[in-house]
Amino acid sequence: MSTTMKIAWTSLLVGFAVLGLKTLAYALTGSVALLSDALESMVNVVTAVAALIAIRVAAMPADDNHPYGHHKAEFFSAVLEGVMIIIAALLILREAVTGIMDPQPLQLPLMGIVFSLTATLINAVWSRVLIRIGRRERSPALVADGRHLFTDVVTSAGVIIGVGLAMTTHWWLLDPLVAIIVAINILWSGAQVIRESLSGLMDEAVPPDTLELIHHVIVVTGEGAVEAHDVRTRHAGRATFVDFHLVVPGETTVFHAHEICDRIEAGLRQALGEVRITIHVEPEHKAEHKAADIVFD
């Protein structure tokens, strides 16, 4: 079983544990704010299942119907997560409005805070693990899940503070007001997740620092070539796609041109990990000179 699969399964178990703690906190107190926290954790469980499925699909090898692989499956998971976050926020807003119209005193608020705080600490640790491993394994689904959990940690902290203030001041209107703040924050988080996932589905280029690294590798490993132009990149899940035109001197043999391409490909794989490379070799009269992306000395 791959690292991403193990992490996805663990995320599901953590999600169920946190959901149980937050549901218990709400059941003990009747707090709308704690209910909002529990609803967000329910979204975490659903999206953990979606991420698990997406990672399994993304890991499938290329086939006749999907010659470039199944990497984009993870972006669909991240989009679903964004949609679920927004739905949870709308549900929270509905409950908060009801609470504002008829604020109720909280039952056993201290016990509720203890259970909610425990769940928040678990999420804080796990969100850092997800983001770190997701970036290392280049898994958009894990990174999206980790960022959502981190948002959950921040909002949960706000909920705990709000419930604590309501408990000490007996101003019970604070409870639904905190829930509204949580819902607005969750809406923003969901919109960000969707935006980032759609950029991957639309074949957005790699970040500038990664593109700079690609250019550097081509310069270092492309000795014997004249220039490289029309460098294009995109990313899909863990895979980075790179294609460009490589201009070689007119007298270069096919064998020598192939050797240059092999060096460049090896360098890019070492620098980027999972990468798909397409190099179109051209004779010297095809050089674009000043318009080229890379000109070799």
Automatic annotation (TrEMBL):
Every Cation efflux protein cytoplasmic domain range: 207-284
Residue ranges that the Swiss-Prot or TrEMBL entry lists as coiled coil: none
GO CC annotations on file: plasma membrane
Gene Ontology MF annotations: cadmium ion transmembrane transporter activity; ferrous iron transmembrane transporter activity; zinc efflux antiporter activity
Localisation per UniProt entry: Membrane
Example GO biological process: intracellular zinc ion homeostasis
Stored Pfam families: Cation_efflux (PF01545), ZT_dimer (PF16916)
Membrane topology: Multi-pass membrane protein
Keywords of this entry: Ion transport, Iron, Iron transport, Membrane, Transmembrane, Transmembrane helix, Transport, Zinc, Zinc transport
Transmembrane segments: 43-63, 75-94, 106-129, 149-171
Domain Cation efflux protein transmembrane: 9-202
Family the UniProt entry places it in: Belongs to the cation diffusion facilitator (CDF) transporter (TC 2.A.4) family. FieF subfamily.
Designated name of the protein: Ferrous-iron efflux pump FieF
Taxonomic source organism: Kushneria phyllosphaerae
High-level lineage: Bacteria, Pseudomonadati, Pseudomonadota, Gammaproteobacteria, Oceanospirillales
